[in-house]
Input
Amino acid sequence: MTLPDELGGGLAHVLLRKAYSLAAFALVGVLADRALPRARRPALRAALVVALFSALIEVGSGFHPVGVPSADDLTALAKGLAEVGRSLDELELVGGVRATFPDDDSCADLAQAMDTIAPQLSDGYTTFCIKPSQFIDDGAEIGRFCRAVIRRAEAL
Output
């Protein structure tokens, strides 16, 4: 499938192709994950990671790994970007916090979770995702929660 230049041509074509590939990988992944024995599932997840890296390298503007990428992962990403004339510096690095729940009924401690942001800042991450429902269980507390997040972030 190609698009005429007046509709975005090259970039739009790459975006559509990558979106289609990721959607196809995800659908196949969900179906196969249920059908495959546990021992075969890591290979399926690896294939999805390859598809994601491919899309990121060609057209991505941000990288949110949903976890901490290994040094090897970042090296592979930097190498892939370099191969298409891009740099890791062009990507907005999106980090996050990992909530630790003290028991099955309690919310996680925000201060403890946000302690992981400082090292990410020093690694070049500039945007962070925090899921409020991990730290509060009453929607009426969202304003107080957001103010606490901002106060802690500004203190970094």
The two ends are 48 Å apart (CA to CA). The longest strand covers residues 92-96. The mean pLDDT is 78. Helices lie at 9-35, 41-59, 71-83, 110-114, 117-122, 142-155.
